[in-house]
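Hey team,

Filing this mostly as a record. A colleague (T.K.) asked me to run one chain through the structure pipeline before their review meeting, and I want the input and output archived in the tracker in case anyone asks later how it was produced. No errors, nothing strange. Just documentation.

Input sequence:
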Amino acid sequence: MKKYHFKTSNQNNHIFPQLSQLDMAMIKHVKPGGNWMDIPEEIPSNRLKQIRQMSKERGIVRTTYYGRLRADQPAYTISTYFNRPGNGTNIHPWEHRTLSSREAARLQSFPDSFEFIGSEASVRKQIGNAVPPLVGYAVGKTLGKQTFVDLFAGAGGLSLGLEMAGLECVGAQELDKTFLETFEKNHPKVAGILTGDITDEQIQKKFVVLVEKSLGGERLGLLVGGPPCQGFSHAGWRRQDDKRNSLVSYFLKMIELLNPENVLIENVEGLLTMDKGKVLAGIFKALEELGYDHYDKPFVLHAEEYGVPQMRRRVIIVATKRGNKLPSPPIKLFDKCYGRREKSEHRSNPLISYPVVVAEALWDLPKIGKPINSFLPNFNSVDKTYSKWLRGDMVTEDFLKTRGGVKNLLLI
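Output structure:
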């Protein structure tokens, strides 16, 4: 099997984030692993006043807000607001600033060769909303080689991961034109790319024609996508004029039109409890009506268990044509990280291998602020495997075998 190898490029999108004087004043007080509680009360901030008041009434809250990353743990979830200190744990571990877009991309497991197109705000959305490519890779390895189409493709993190695992992308759809420009830049061989609203029947028909042309008469192997599921009404999913329909209804409609052998739906963990479980049950029922088998429960994947230096959970629904064998769950290569609840034995006696940490992702990027000497990790002791992979000096399979704790893997 061909090994997926990246080419190195310059570290685009690695610039000092724009920060207010108040942001900088607060950031300078936060220690590695610390949060808003490190910031003195004399620094004026209405938001901090609200958080402190809530904590007095309900116990300590918002423990990730105004947080500084620990160099020796994976990051917390990278959202679309990683440039803001007050919207999560986004403060650089050893510089007084928030994360650059390239740093956030590395924490999402995007290789340095992946180029983002658009304004800084657009790039942040592309990175924060993406499925980490290494999560896509782990899922792709369970599915095996086949063609696939990506709906709601975004910048293409999931597609990149599937391609790394040996699958072939033949089509992609995305509403945001700039997002799709990034997709096209990094997937130049994909012919069936379409910008448009998938709720539009004309766009649906046009996309089907593009995909069928790309397939050249062959059957589509896999349809993937991460459709928002809020407001989903199973009763009306086949009716495009039903106002209760949400985007997942149109994803199901595309399953009906494209008739793939397999289906992969990616979503946030909240899908499990959305409308007291009725949304998930409705999706399962619709898949069954379309002729697909599925597991009783989706896969709930912790990104750090698959090589991503980030604590992020994603829900994956895999379905296959009735009578086919369902793929196995992805193999975990690293331990789960417990963040602030971590105990010493989690690090000293890992079950598999301790996850990839922030320092491994950021250590070799050019400094864009003044390092704080007391916060600097010992770079000589930082494992260099992940950064070698990011730069394209190591293929994915070798990175996971070298850094992961399970050696006897069917990865190649």
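Quick notes for T.K.: The longest helix spans residues 201-215. Strands lie at 147-151, 168-174, 192-195, 222-225, 262-267, 292-294, 299-302, 313-321.
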